[in-house]
């Protein structure tokens, strides 16, 4: 089974991001807008309790935090993903580091660049057009995160939440 | 903002239900297969912490339980919803009762009939055809529930999980 760990932004920001994703992101219907803390990884359903337990401990040693969404960026030339940049901060980095130890399955293909995807799988021309127009938009949002979620993927590609982990709550 | 409380069945059952919903349920893309414990209700975002706190207490006083999915049924003539019937059981009834007190917003239009929707918004003819063929399918599944989820709805109609509540865990 495939799992992943994400933070969902506020409803207001999710609605705004979906305004773009509806047009520019073929994954629009599969998962709500999110910051990926841990990319999709395979794990056996029998390991799920142990993974949840470890995530509960990770959540317990972090406090709710604010993060800043500062601009529209793209991962080109690596890939044609357009995203809202989330400025790095200590808590995000620590959450990432603690979910990427030998205690968790999964590997990352790229270094951690916190972001909220607004478009992907675009042709080079589309990407260039869309990115050219979106990067003019001024973004300056501060969001609060007090939880993260462990998701699993259904056969139809849709991600469902298995469990929520509240930051700063006893494990 | 609109909220709801649901139980998601196992991935295996969700995948099976989605096989039907893809064809027969226009809400297919909006929410994963579920048992509704509390129908969509309006609440102010400022009341969310208090609602979560109360749901945590409801979860704490129940233990994980098994439930039986026994057949395909329809709510006709009330409406053209085709569903997997979930046999009533004490824990489900108690979860329903405790989330329908004066401490929670929301009202139910119908008595509690636990079910997992597999088709809805069908024309009378479609409903009759589909139900006629599906009700021959023999269903006899036992599922374990150890959690429920508080969801909220985005502007595009999609339901996102706000929080998971584990049964039998201290509030």
From TrEMBL, chains A, B:
Keywords per UniProt: Hydrolase
EC class (word): hydrolase
Residue numbers covered by motif HXTX 1: 34-37
HXTX 2 (motif): residue ranges: 115-118
InterPro entries recorded: 2H_phosphoesterase_YjcG-like, Cyclic_Pdiesterase, YjcG
GO MF annotation terms: hydrolase activity, acting on ester bonds
EC code(s) of this entry: 3.1.-.-
Active-site residues, as the UniProt record annotates them: 34, 115
SUPFAM superfamilies in the cross-refs: LigT-like
Pfam families reported for this sequence: 2_5_RNA_ligase2
Top-level division of the source organism's lineage: Bacteria
PANTHER family found in the cross-reference section: PHOSPHOESTERASE SAOUHSC_00951-RELATED, PHOSPHOESTERASE YJCG-RELATED
Family label: Belongs to the 2H phosphoesterase superfamily. YjcG family.
NCBIfam families: PRK13679.1
Name assigned to this protein: Putative phosphoesterase BLL40_15750
Species, as recorded: Domibacillus mangrovi
């Amino acid at each position: 089974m495939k799992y992943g760990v994400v933070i969902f932004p506020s409803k207001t920001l999710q609605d705004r991001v979906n305004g773009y994703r509806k047009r520019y992101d073929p994954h629009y219907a599969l998962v709500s807008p999110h910051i990926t803390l841990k990319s999709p990884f395979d794990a056996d359903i029998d390991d799920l309790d142990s993974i949840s337990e470890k995530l509960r401990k990770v959540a317990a040693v972090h406090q709710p935090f604010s993060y800043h969404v500062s601009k529209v960026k793209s991962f080109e030339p690596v890939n044609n993903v357009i995203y809202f940049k989330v400025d790095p901060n200590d808590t995000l980095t620590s959450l990432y580091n603690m979910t990427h130890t030998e205690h968790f399955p999964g590997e990352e293909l790229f270094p951690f660049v916190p972001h909220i995807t607004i478009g992907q799988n675009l042709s080079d021309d589309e990407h260039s057009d869309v990115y050219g127009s979106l990067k003019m938009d001024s973004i300056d949002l501060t969001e609060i995160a007090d939880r993260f979620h462990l998701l699993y993927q259904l056969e139809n590609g849709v991600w469902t939440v298995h469990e929520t982990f509240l930051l700063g709550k006893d494990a």
